[in-house]
Amino acid sequence: MISLPLTTPILPSRCLLHQTRRQNSTHRRFWIRSSSSLHEQVTAKTTKRVVLVRHGQSTWNEEGRIQGSSDFSVLTKKGESQADISRQMLINDSFDVCFTSPLKRSKKTAEIIWGSRENEMIFDYELREIDLYSFQGLLKKEGKEKFGEAFKQWQEDPANFIIDGHYPVRELWSRARSCWPGILAHESKSVLVVAHNAVNQALVATAIGLGTEYFRSLLQSNCGVSVLDFTPRADGGSPHVCFNRLNQTPNSPLAGGSSGGRKASKQVILVCHGQGNNEDSAVINQAATNDQSMNMLGVIQSQKTAELLLDLRVSSIVCSPKAASVETAGVISRVQKAAGCLGVDSVPRHVKTKQMNELDVEGVLRKSNQDNDVIASSQPGWLSQLDEEAVSALWNRSGKAWESLLDELSDEESNPGEIMVVVGSPMTHISLIAQCLNLTKEGLGLFHLDAGSISVIDFPDGPSRRGVIRCTNYTAHLGRWCSPITRPA
Description:
The chain is α/β, with parallel strands linked by helices. It folds into 2 domains: 15-248, 3-Layer(aba) Sandwich (Rossmann fold), CATH 3.40.50; 261-481, Phosphoglycerate mutase-like (Rossmann fold, 3-Layer(aba) Sandwich). The chain has 13 helices and 18 strands. It has a 6-stranded mixed β-sheet with strand order 5-4-6-3-7-8. The longest helix has 24 residues, at 388-411.
């Protein structure tokens, strides 16, 4: 089984290749994992699910102040309402313990979500928000006026940002790593962690092996819920980590148009096609995988997804040539075009649709597994069941698909807010998320997506720069057919 150590980030120690996109000079970089040994061994004795929640809206969030680790901000009424919605989202989970930052805005959020549970609450000062020293308490415009170049570096190069002799993001990553041993050592199977925006980013990143350069790449909205599953390894080493979902918000993940306070100039919505006829089995038979249609549940899932996207003006839909993806894309296209008739728009929408062969990433597996079944990406440990050649072929195909999608997005008219919907299988979108984050092929085993789910990638600085993952594996729009956020691992 491929596993990623909790304490070793993916370091930019070697650039494998540079790909020039079109006529500009920007480059896409692929990093390999550092091979240095762990300074601190992190283990998990039992299978464990960790649910991370950011606090609700605070008074300083509302005012636009830089909070950092200060404790003068409290929850607004909206923040308390968000926390209560998160409580309802998690009400069926019998958490064994809650770790929380003791800062008032986080503590209050934790108390609302924890409700009448009698289990233990642990206040851990290491879970406080990032220390921002002289920045704390300033309005953002005041920070820009007072600190000039330092504030610009905080916005554009936070990993190397320095203030008052400190590197806040580097300190934060070190502190986040130090939190994991205590969380994973606790004898519990379901853990709730309530903290803050930056520290939750750092917890996610250090869990899956990402370095400080990924700060602001994994969005954390107020009361957003993220889920990580840890599975022990037989050799007792660092557990296998599965990033089950990111930033499940009290409202739709499509609400609002900013990523970390920045307006997204382009957006890609990854839609997993509706469930197919044979996707309830552990493996998908080769012949059935060639071109299976959706079953009745899949049809319902695709319709629910189309309804979720109704309030968005989708500019284009790109799909895999496989039947279930084409069918799902067709449902979304028809609903978009019918928006005028439904009273959403005064004029009909015109949506470009296109099939892209590169999005059939399973195609390379069929070629390399002629005499075997094709593994389903919904099966735990699926990546470890593929040989090295198959994994490389899958990775290379998904790389071509991602570059083609960025080309398509760059070709769109330069109007801000352009939205592209990409329809494919869970395996396809897992691959695209890993490509977006510039991971190596080992990163394919990090993520889980359900049929009918959506994941959202924002491009605040355009498709020539790294995308921001707004959410992954969102299924709340499926109603009674959704995958519960805290279902058993």
